[in-house]
Design brief:
- The structure is a single chain.
- The strands form two sheets. Strands 1, 10, 11, 12, 13, 14, 15, 16 and 17 form a nine-stranded mixed sheet that branches. An eight-stranded parallel sheet has the order 2-9-8-7-6-5-4-3.
- It is built from nine helices and 17 strands.
- The longest helix is centred in the middle third of the chain and has 24 residues.
- By secondary structure, the chain is of the alpha/beta class.
- The two termini are 23 Å apart.
- Helix 3 runs parallel beside helix 4, helix 4 packs across helix 5 and helix 6 crosses helix 7.
- 29% of the residues lie in helices and 24% in strands.
- Strand 16 and strand 17 form a beta hairpin.
- Bound molecules: pyridoxal-5'-phosphate.
- The site of pyridoxal-5'-phosphate has 15 residues, from loops.
Length: 347
């Protein structure tokens, strides 16, 4: 797994530049799972990191990140306890969409002698986690407020169902509709005496629009650092910084077979592509990708190519480390944290 660090640094600077004042950037660390990239994002102005799992949050805190948001529900005694211990070292905020989550967080915080920040997660149309109505947001906020060890900080709502809409106008309308649902919850909470200090939303391809909406305070974009084929068409201003180095193992007419497959590259959401080569993915196996070249090309058995992933988070999760390239030369090796089942890299 190759990381073109110049491209990653350019992506970090570009996104940071959009959120230098007003709405702030709290990049999603699930996309890279890498402390070295996280610290570069913080140095560029990010206010902390977002994570999908408790283990990612613990790993980042153990590597010096002082403010993390777990933008997901955390369920399970071991995970909640590890997070509560991390909350002694750093500011840890966790999303909840059920009073049971909040109770478990409060109990663990009590045992660890720490405090959790809490965001009420609001379903803004993705139909994944999140309370379904503003009334439910208020009820949950009331339950959180009654618990010790928890500080209600606001709300989050992820408009991921609108992220890959190719038509810009339709995408923007979808984002606005989704964020209207989040702001309705913010207003209901304020009316009930729970003003939201944090209103967190946004991904790579929605950040530019979501981040300008009144009331949004934080953006959770993540994949922009590395980029992939899913987001490339909607955010061409970011460069591909992550590729998988593959070898041509078979070639017949215009059919090229590479020795990378589902065990080394994420195909979710979009097909991978060979960098600099016009070819269509025909088939994928665990150890093979079969491409059809548009026209007879120069690729021969033994040639090496770089493959741009369809989806970065699942690609990164398959690898133990980044080979960091500067000027086309490997200059460092950076571990991938909290990968696989999640806690294997947590010391
Ligand atoms: C809750 C949440 N926030 C933010 C993101 C970041 O989105 P992206 O990777 O497009 O930047 C994701 C990605 O799935 C997510 O699940």
């Amino acid at each position: 797994m190759l990381l073109a660090i110049e491209a990653a640094e350019a992506n970090i600077a570009l996104m940071a530049g959009r959120f230098a004042g007003g709405t702030r950037l709290r990049p999603h660390g699930k996309s890279h799972k890498c402390a070295e990239l996280a610290h570069r994002q913080i140095r560029a102005g990010a206010i902390g990191l977002t994570t999908a799992t408790a283990w990612e949050a613990v790993a980042f805190v153990n590597r010096g990140i002082k403010d993390v948001l777990v933008a997901n529900q955390v369920v399970g005694a071991e995970k909640v306890a590890a997070l509560a211990a991390a909350a002694r070292e750093a500011r840890v905020t966790v999303a909840v969409d059920d009073a049971g989550h909040a109770r478990h967080l409060a109990e663990a915080a009590g045992r660890a002698g720490s405090t959790f920040g809490v965001l009420v997660e609001v379903d803004v149309g993705l139909a994944r986690c999140g309370v379904r109505t503003p009334e439910a947001a208020v009820q949950l906020a009331q339950a959180v407020a009654r618990l010790p060890g928890l500080a209600l900080r606001g709300v989050m709502g992820y408009e991921g169902h609108r992220a890959l809409e190719p038509d810009e106008k339709a995408r923007n309308e979808g984002i606005n509709a989704a964020m209207a649902r989040l702001i309705a919850a913010v207003e209901a909470l304020a009316a009930a005496g729970f003003p939201a200090a944090i209103v967190s939303a946004g991904g790579t391809s929605t950040a530019a629009v979501t981040g300008r909406l009144p009331g949004i305070t934080e953006i959770q974009a993540g994949s922009y650092v590395l980029m992939d084929n899913a987001r490339g068409p909607v955010t061409p201003e970011f460069q591909n910084a992550l590729t998988i180095l593959a070898t041509v193992v078979s070639r017949h007419d215009t059919t090229v077979v590479l020795d990378t497959g589902r065990k080394t590259i994420g195909l979710e959401m979009a097909a991978p592509a060979i960098a600099g080569v016009t070819a269509t993915l025909r088939r994928s196996g665990d150890e093979h990708l079969v491409f059809e070249l548009k026209e007879p090309g120069p690729l021969r058995v033994g040639d090496q190519v770089e493959v741009i992933p369809g989806y970065v988070p699942t690609t990164v999760n398959l690898h133990e480390a980044y080979l960091v390239m500067r000027g086309g030369v490997v200059v460092d090796v950076w571990p991938v944290l909290a990968r696989g089942a999640g806690n294997s890299w947590v010391p």
